[in-house]
Predict the structure.
Amino acid sequence: MFRGASHRVLEQGVSGLYFFNLFIPSEYGTITDVADRARLKTLTKTYVIDTSSAWGQNGTVYTGPLPLNFPPAAEDTSIELRLEIPEDLRGAKSVRLAVQWRGKNAAGRSHWSVHGNEAKLLNPTENAVLEYDGSAVKPGLNRLRVTVTSGFPVPLVLDTVRVIVTRV
């Protein structure tokens, strides 16, 4: 996420980045990953849809579209999420959509599409993170749609949505 966030703001035109309290390089990536813009373009990056779990030192909570609660419903429920990808994806080894849910049978109850194209589930077992083929993801603004099927007595909560662009 560190590389993806850095790449996004650099592509938007910032002239530099300042890092504070970056104590654990193995957790966030290294500053050298983003210090060389040409090298950064060749590295694997993760782009994330914002969550409401971030807060400022003054106690301000920054809200994002996630987590999303899908309560039991009589009809299928669809939500569109948007995610900006600021890089040319040609030459990427893979592009995957990775999502994390709370609730039962998320693999069987949720279906994803990217720009109207159904995303194929790559790991159909009930894992903590479900991965989908992200080949329909493109540079620029991406429209990701999740549909949760009805007929289940328990809710699903969508916690995280990531696009992982693997370069090496």
The first helix runs from residue 2 to 11.
